[in-house]
Amino acid sequence: MRETDPAASAATRSTAAAAICWIVAAVVYLLAETLTASAFPGYSYAMNYISDLGVPDVEMLGNRPVDSPLHMVINIAFVAQGLLFAAAAVCFTRCPALPLRLPIIVVGLVHALGMVIIAVVNGGQHNNELGLGWVHLLGALFAFFGGHATAICIGISLLMQRSGQPIAAISIAIGLIGVLGIVMLQVDVRAIPGMLLPDGVWERIGMYAVVAWELLFGAFLLARRSRKALSKSPAAALD
User: Fold this and answer.
1) Where does the sequence pass through the membrane (predicted)?
2) Per-residue exposure over 79-94, b if at least 16 CB sit within 10 Å of its own CB, e if not
């Protein structure tokens, strides 16, 4: 009878759970954004901000008309994305041999906190007049920083562990691309308006970097698990 390592089995199950959470988080976000944007008259992925989709009021924000009938859909998706992301980070770090376990958990929770904040405190004019605009911006900072930092920390962790080196390098690269998008958004908003790309494009580079990484890394984890299962199948057949 083949012996199994309970700790290894638990780590394998946790890794699979992490992969599923990241993939589901990405799919939920993309579907919700597509649905909400389709109901938003004249919504522009280039000119409008993502958070415009979550504003409940019909109004003008700067030079952008805002009218999002399905604002609740995207706000629920923000929360779902954050909670699933945090759950994935915690599950992924169940492996005791993984380096940078605590930093990965912390930045994963920071991302989740940011996504919840931007859902609860939307970026509309009403909240700005209440003096809550900075809360929404802080939430966005947490969401972007936490998501990008998670990809980078996991990439570094895998390099330290000397496993999955291509996906480690890709994770770090995607995280840095996301950081670049948000840095350029701030440059565009505060220093040189309209620099190279519209605001909405820079912001989406930041957000889609997180979503792309979730899909890619989740798929990698599931594929690796499948390969390990196949490699063990001959032995299993002898049990």
Assistant:
1) 12-32, 70-92, 104-122, 134-160, 167-185, 205-223
2) bbbbebbbbbbbbbbb
Residue among 17, 8, 18 at smallest CA distance from 228: 8
* Distance between CA atoms of residues 53 and 55, nearest Å: 6
Counts of helices then strands in the chain (DSSP H, E): 7, 2
Stretches in the chain below the pLDDT threshold 70 = 1-10, 164, 193-195, 228-239
The single-letter DSSP state of residue 57 is S
Mark 202-231 as b/e (b = at least 16 C-beta within 10 Å).
bbbbbbbbbbbbbbbbbebbbebeeeeeee
Which pLDDT does position 188 carry in this prediction?
A: 81
DSSP-based three-state secondary structure for 155: helix
- Structure token digits, residue 218: 């989740």
In one-letter notation, the amino acid at residue 103 is P
Measured CA to CA, the distance from residue 73 to residue 233 in angstroms comes to 43
Phi, then psi, of 223 in degrees rounded to 5 = -65, -40
The token pair that represents 17 in the structure block: 């759970």
Q: Which helix (H) or strand (E) holds 219?
A: helix 199-238
